[in-house]
Amino acid sequence: MAKVTLDGIRKVYPNGFEAVKPSSFDIPDGEFVVLVGPSGCGKSTLLRMIAGLEDISEGALSIGDRVVNDVDPADRNIAMVFQNYALYPHMTVAKNMGYGLKNRGVSKAEIERKVAEAAEMLDLSALLDRRPSQLSGGQRQRVAMGRAIVRNPDLFLFDEPLSNLDAKLRNQMRIEIRALQRRLGVTAIYVTHDQVEAMTMADRIIVLNGGVIEQIGTPTEIYENPASTFVAGFMGAPPMNLLKAKVNGAGTAEVTEGLSFPAPAGASGDVLVGIRPEDLEIAEDGDMQMEVKIVEELGANRLLHGDLGGQEFSVSVPKQQEVTEGQIALRIKSGEPHVFDANSGRRL
Amino acid sequence: MIDITTATPNAATITPKRRFKWNVALDHLVLIVGSLFMILPVLLAFTTASHDAVTIHREGLQLKMGDQLGVNFQKAMFEKGGFTDTVDGMRMLTNSFILGIGFAVGKIIIGMMAAYAIVYFRLRFASFAFWIIFTTLLLPLEVRILPSYEVIQGLGLTNTYTGLIVPLIASATATFFFRQFFRSVPEELVEASRIDGAGPVKFFIDILVPLSRTMIAAMFIIMFVFGWNQYLWPTLITTEESFFTLVRGIKQIVISYTDAQIPEHGQALALAFVAIVPPVLVVIFFQSWFVKGLTESDK
Ligand SMILES: Nc1ncnc2c1ncn2[C@@H]1O[C@H](COP(=O)(O)OP(=O)(O)OP(=O)(O)O)[C@@H](O)[C@H]1O
Ligand SMILES: [Mg+2]
């Protein structure tokens, strides 16, 4: 168990591509941090630098109180779960889980005890003599987890560990991983491009975009106060509506004639007004007139897509609400609209 | 559900009657003819080996079994022959095994290690080195036989097993195949084992070698048979009869007689038959292993 500190970590690949711009953050002991971002944004690169599988071009990385920039992966006392599990195909489940211990000179009896204990925890006891090829995807995933926990590492690293599982199993494993991490109290860094995974699992989320950290915060903070239009659009499903607007003399952000929103002090020029589809409701006396073009059934609720003030817009309504295509009136149910600078995308 | 159950009998009645499939018959015909073509000479060698030298000399190859089979095999294998009367069939069999196994094992070990270095280590001129190694494919021993002989003689390795085996090993086939195979091993396995604390040697022995089982089996088949069948190089490098292999010994039996005597064709064919058996066994044994490995598909 340990805290992790990144101080100005940067990655430039040998071909000159800067995959991670200088980034700094701390992860307190025992925290579950999710790195999230679109494909190619540098999540894996960052994680692999922490694991020691990739050289750090610049900056200092410490795990615990030790700077580990030049420490071999084996000596960082970390455990990693890979996307394709990376189980050794020719070894049994027990051997797979015990291999790291064996290499560290742990006695046979001790290995057996620890493997049995981990297998018990992960419900793998009956499968210890099987080979990975004789397991289902979910079971392989568990073995990979088992291999990580038998070593009592200071830090768990996960690189999209659930992306090869079907939706149902993914939900289940999500909960299991989270529960296991809580129980063991080990610091964890979890990479995913799935914002639902990020929201549900994280103590804190780090949103990456193009090698730059856009925002660090708890799931609630990220959801309630996205720091940029990128975060606003990436986190939350369906994504936040972003309306182009202009701040006028009266200090309000005007989308079109008769449709304006309060703007924070100091806002000026072109802005984007962000409203989450679920923060709206249909109301007879609403002052936002929307033209509904498509109704999408999602089960628990419906998603109405259409046009507001000449721009694309969506609203989420509960399933009890009867809706038809055509004109409806809306009002903001809760919270304030988010206002972003149109050029920088930063929150105002 | 109802749809499915009512549909089944309908489907059965629609199925046409079995017709004679001409293309299948043709396939079998081709296979049978091909097999006969391959097997008949061996069979003929076997039946002819059961006759005495005089009969064979007078009447040529025999299709019927004779009564000299045991005698011919016995003499071929256990009676010392050759100019110096020092070598019998058993000795030659042993030598052939030493050459076949030594060659195959040496080649696999060298090939795997070279491929390991090329694929997994950031060597300065790795791909250049690989292509240099690769060009040796264009230079089999027969092409470089004179310089090779010079070197071996200079080292005083004529009439040794080392001189027999080592120069043959120096070629790129195994390196090439292992390189291709190693490149198909997922990168994540290397990384997982690094985190598990396996250094380069441990990774090679604990992970890569077991993963290469099927590849090793395939290589062993090819290399063993290739080494077993060597003729030119052993002829050149070993002059002492105690180093003779079966393949050379066959010829020795036929020519090592004075003009007055009839060549011992029966014994030569018996020896030829003995020479065929081990490669066949190796192929059969490793083949099953090899296929098992492939179908287990655990990579
Ligand atoms: N060895 C390399 N050499 C050069 N560029 C690389 C190398 N590996 C990755 N990159 C680049 O670095 C960027 C970040 O890659 P990375 O694998 O970290 O993405 P990621 O966020 O994990 O994406 P994904 O969600 O698809 O896994 C990508 O643009 C990629 O093309
Ligand atoms: Mg990735």
Account of the 3D structure:
- The complex is a heterodimer of chains A (348) and B (299).
- Chain A has 348 residues and is α+β, with helices and mostly antiparallel strands.
- Chain A folds into two domains: 227 residues, 3-Layer(aba) Sandwich (Rossmann fold), CATH 3.40.50; 104 residues, OB fold (Dihydrolipoamide Acetyltransferase, E2P), CATH 2.40.50.
- In chain A, the strands form four sheets. Chain A has a six-stranded mixed β-sheet, sandwiched between helices.
- In chain A, helix 2 crosses helix 3, helix 2 runs parallel beside helix 4 and helix 3 crosses helix 4.
- In chain A, 41% of the residues are buried.
- Chain B is mainly α and 299 residues long.
- Chain B contains 15 helices and no strands.
- The longest helix of chain B is centred in the middle third of the chain and has 32 residues.
- Chain B has a domain of 208 residues: MetI-like (MetI-like fold).
- In chain B, 30% of the residues are buried.
- The chains are: A alpha+beta (348), B mainly alpha (299).
- The site of adenosine-5'-triphosphate has 13 residues of chain A, from helix 1.
- Chain A: One of its GO terms (biological process) is glycerol-3-phosphate transmembrane transport.
- Chain A: Its EC number is 3.6.3.20.
- Chain A: Pfam families: ABC_tran, OB_MalK.
Outline the fold blueprint.
The complex is a heterodimer of chains A (348) and B (299).
Chain A: E1 4-12, E2 18-27, E3 32-36, H1 43-51, E4 58-63, E5 66-67, E6 78-81, H2 93-103, H3 108-122, H4 137-149, E7 155-159, H5 167-184, E8 187-192, H6 195-201, E9 204-209, E10 212-217, H7 219-224, H8 229-234, E11 241-247, E12 252-256, E13 259-262, E14 269-275, E15 280-282, E16 288-297, E17 301-308, E18 311-318, E19 326-332, E20 338-341
Parallel strand pairs in A: 3-8, 3-9, 6-7, 7-8
Antiparallel strand pairs in A: 1-2, 1-4, 4-5, 9-10, 11-12, 11-14, 12-13, 14-20, 15-19, 16-17, 16-19, 17-18
Chain B: H1 2-14, H2 22-48, H3 53-59, H4 69-78, H5 89-120, H6 126-135, H7 145-154, H8 161-169, H9 173-184, H10 187-195, H11 200-211, H12 213-228, H13 232-237, H14 246-255, H15 265-296
Helix pairs in contact in B: 2-15, 4-15, 5-6, 5-8, 5-9, 5-12, 12-15, 14-15
The site of adenosine-5'-triphosphate has 13 residues of chain A, from helix 1.
